[in-house]
Amino acid sequence: MKIIINNASGVPIYEQIVSQIKNQIMTGELTEGEALPSMRLLAKEQRISVITTKRAYEELEREGFIYSVVGKGSFVAPKNIEVIKEQHLREIEDKLREALALAHLSGIEIKELKEMFDILAEE
Amino acid sequence: MVDFAIDLKNVTKKYDGFMLNNVSFTLPRGCIMGLIGANGAGKSTIIKLMLGIIKKDSGDIKLLGCDSDKLSNEVKERIGVVFDESFFPENMKLREIERVLANIYKNWDETVFARYISEFGLPQNVAIKDFSRGMKMKLSIACALSHNAELLVLDEATSGLDPIVRNEILDIFLDFIQDENNSVLISSHITSDLEKVCDYVTFIDNGKIIMSDEKDLILEKYAVVKCSQDEIDKLPCEKTIGIRKNKFGAEALTETKAVPADFIAEPADLEKIMLFTAKKENRK
Q: Are A41 and A90 within one domain?
């Protein structure tokens, strides 16, 4: 597991941990059932407060990304990834619809939009 | 119910010209608390009261769930204490010191002590008087941790040490709380050290608790605003803790939420919070 904390970013540390672990679960770097480091170890290694790591793990657990077993630690939760993908697809659909509506306002053609999309994807 | 390693309620102690006024704070087990404040703010008085070295006038102090006035020897063994000066006889060597301590503490653990001694690289055949300040401090900490302590109390343990040794010592504390039953209270005026390792910060000034909360919450709550002297008056007065003006501009410590959108604000560190807050108290 890889966590890089940026103290200058202004994003609360626990949010940085949450989003990085989430990201690694979604990309498959962390796999189902894999044990996460203990909250205390993570806190010690990163020189951050136990309260912060605890808050991050609690948040991840609440959102269903990990689960914890008393006395054993925290593990990557199964399956949920499909649900997340589904949710992301829905968000993308909404955003594309917005883009279409905007294009419609000034008569930009679908062809132009597609071209723009291809260029963006290649960047 | 949260299990507290340290629980102070309305503790008061009066001296001529100084008063520890109604001090309350708690430290949950498994955490490190930093007690910060200027010299003479009352940090050492709190620690001495906790350990029963001086008697409180009123209030309640509980250590590891036990009333501090009636600590049994068994509970005392579970508390490790380190002061800024070492009290070992200067002519003794490590082995002799260990022999004395092993007789005092029922739970003295030779293996743990030997491990710390080798980890800290302390020499066996050198008298204490020839130890450097850092070595003496490491020895004190090794001793405090070698009788199965669950609570470690340190008064100014990192002052007068170089940054490398201070960092090594901070690492020891972090290792120590890998066991969630263990807790640490460190008093210091070196706020950067405490900022690195503490979970909780209690800030005392002039015998009174100014704040006692999770370190992250304190750091998130305050920001340092930089602006011109005219602009500083636009800051909401009740949310502004302290102001410092110079020839070309001004700085103020205020609550992060109260910073107007067009102002330049930086995150506040513990040192800034201490400086501005203590100043405010003096002004009153």
A: no
